Amino acid sequence: MINLNTENIILEQYEKSRYARHLCLPEVGVEGQKRLKAASVLCVGTGGLGSPILLYLAAAGIGKIGIVDFDVVDESNLQRQIIHGTSKVGLPKTNSAKNSILEINPYCDLQIHNSALTSDNALDIIKDYDIICDGTDNFPARYLINDACVILGKPNVYGSIIRFEGHATVFNLDERSPNYRDLFPSPLPPEMTPSCAEDGVIGVLPGIIGVIQATEVIKIITGIGRPLSGRLLLFDALEMKFNEIQLKADPNTPKITELIDYNKFCGHDHACSSGDENMVESISYHQLQSMLNSNQEQILLVDVRGAEEAKIDQIPGSILIPLKDLTAENHLRELRDAQKDKMIVVYCKTGVRSLKAINALSKKDIHAKQLEGGINAWNVASISNEN
């Protein structure tokens, strides 16, 4: 249980009615509901995990909720990010989430941080909250949240999802608790890092894991039950099966005393840094369309997305070589032969994987250009031209 001052917290009549099902639980009761009202929780990310976390914490009566996100709502989010709706496409996710939360609980004090969490602002943002929920989807952000929570002594309620599998735990609950670095002492190389954009995720999965995270927050605040501290809960949606593994703090882990450059630490500055982007040659939709119209035989379009993504849509005339297979010798041989008389243009969904692909090919002395904005930009431009 975390330290909370409920001495001056009063439940109004409307709150007694709203939270009646909590109040009749002996484990929660009036005192537990006061603790929920006195508590503050920060959720980093308003995506698949952040959606159920925020909705259920607001409904539970958390007094102050902070939201950190810098992204906008995209149509592809709506399959799993249930805090957003069709009418919110194109809006900042923080604004969309705020509207949904206030519809559920207009009495919640919402603090909006419409920016990325960085090493420069993380400590200032996180220090004002009792508990932090990690709803992010990348290694740099997870290490950043973890280290800031360790420095500030904040519990970190963690979740992660990919395809049909998810896991959740509570890091840094007390001085004996493990933290994220006890689970992942060092980050995976960027090329081995799974991504929902590449590998997919079943829409209900973040709901399950996010609700588990919200449950842990409520347990920690009210001091009931047994938190997931020291236990990593694993969920397999295909088998509908939960497993659990024990986590222990490593006494030999170096003490975390400051925040660092987490993109560099995770190797992302090499794979996807702005410097690399500046060195990569790119080609716009209009340039590519013009070249295809004049002489398609001079262009080799390479789609580096997954096979299932390519079934949804593909630029006509493309060949499919998924990023994970790109450096196989048969594909390298094909591309080396092609570059003798063709321009190789690589694309993915938005440009992240194509950048990785070009960096990988350059190490094999194969020159390629990147389609700006990927197939998303191609589709948008194509629709605009049709209209």
List its traits:
eight-stranded mixed β-sheet; 18 helices; five-stranded parallel β-sheet; alpha/beta; 387 residues
Kindly describe this structure.
The chain is of the alpha/beta class. The protein contains 18 helices and 13 strands. It has helices spanning 13-18, 20-23, 29-38, 50-60, 93-104, 122-126, 139-152, 180-183, 196-199, 205-222, 262-265, 268-272, 274-279, 285-295, 307-312, 329-338, 352-362, 374-386, and strands at residues 40-44, 64-68, 109-113, 131-134, 156-162, 165-171, 231-236, 241-246, 282-283, 299-303, 319-320, 343-347, 369-371. The strands form 2 sheets. Strands 3-2-1-4-5-6-7-8 form an 8-stranded mixed sheet, with helices on both faces. The chain has a 5-stranded parallel sheet with strand order 9-13-12-10-11. Strand 2, helix 5 (93-104) and strand 3 form a beta-alpha-beta unit. Helix 4 runs parallel beside helix 5 (93-104) and helix 4 (50-60) runs parallel beside helix 10. Residues 270-278 have low confidence and may be disordered.
Task: Describe the SSE topology.
Blueprint: H1 13-18, H2 20-23, H3 29-38, E1 40-44, H4 50-60, E2 64-68, H5 93-104, E3 109-113, H6 122-126, E4 131-134, H7 139-152, E5 156-162, E6 165-171, H8 180-183, H9 196-199, H10 205-222, E7 231-236, E8 241-246, H11 262-265, H12 268-272, H13 274-279, E9 282-283, H14 285-295, E10 299-303, H15 307-312, E11 319-320, H16 329-338, E12 343-347, H17 352-362, E13 369-371, H18 374-386
Parallel strand pairs: 1-2, 1-4, 2-3, 4-5, 9-13, 10-11, 10-12, 12-13
Antiparallel strand pairs: 5-6, 6-7, 7-8
Helix pairs in contact: 4-5, 4-10
